[in-house]
Design a protein that fits this description.
The chain is built from 7 helices and 3 strands. It is mostly helical.
Length: 232
């Protein structure tokens, strides 16, 4: 009997030790700190917002979209407005029966006032616009992209009244050389004038007509040829 009790006691002690070891292992495992950091609520919200952000919001933050919306679209609309009203007003004549017709390059203008440099030409042009409501340009007669269909106040446009020896008929000159030499001298002066851009003169070929040269380039071979063709 003693043997049986001893054996039963040993079995009980073994079972109790197993329970203690199990409970102790569970406690120790639960007491160890976790090495995996759980995401915070703010980070999870940001991830959800970025994943669910609409495409339009992303496009609005694109710098190309801002440039297009702020600069290119107004520029395109303004050019379209000038193209219709100044060059092809017949396109909207059914809406505005009394719309003014387009003024072509060689059409006669109503007004040309020529003055010397710093003689108040800009103020005269401004007064004619404000007081009489005329479409007057200052040093500008290009009517396909500018509202100058009534005329121009300018000093450089007076070049049309300068005699051209050897070219114009019945032009008197004090030069004893022949007409051929006079013509050569005049063309030489024209080439010298158009050799390079002279902004201090307030002159550019685009003031007279819309040529084939690009406005992205201030001067070059194309503008030089255009200048010579206009001046002579």
């Amino acid at each position: 009997m003693a043997t049986e009790s001893n054996s039963n006691g040993a079995v009980r002690r073994r079972r109790s030790n197993k329970k203690k070891s199990r409970s102790g292992g569970t406690v120790s495992s639960s007491s160890e700190p976790s090495t995996v950091a759980s995401p915070s609520k703010s980070d999870s919200k940001r991830q959800k917002t970025a994943a669910t952000a609409p495409p339009a919001e992303k496009i609005h933050k694109n710098p190309l979209f801002v440039i297009t919306a702020v600069i290119l679209i107004p520029y395109a609309l303004w050019n379209a407005y000038l193209y219709v009203f100044l060059q092809n007003p017949e396109l909207i004549s059914f809406l505005y029966p009394t719309i003014r017709p387009a003024v072509k390059l060689h059409d006669t203008r109503q007004l040309l006032i020529v003055g010397t440099i710093s003689s108040g030409t800009s103020q005269v042009a401004k007064d004619l616009k404000n007081n009489l409501g005329l479409e007057i340009g200052h040093e500008n007669a290009e009517a396909s992209w500018s509202f100058v269909r009534d005329g121009t106040v300018s000093w450089f446009h007076g070049i049309r009244y300068i005699p051209r020896p050897g070219i114009d008929v019945n032009v008197k000159t004090n030069n004893n050389a022949g007409k051929e030499n006079n013509n050569t001298t005049f063309l030489t002066q024209v080439k010298y004038l158009c050799r390079e851009l002279q902004p201090q003169m307030g002159f550019h070929p685009f003031m007279f007509r819309d040529g084939k040269c690009s406005l992205r380039q201030s001067w070059g071979d194309c503008w030089r040829d255009e200048c010579e063709d206009i001046v002579k």
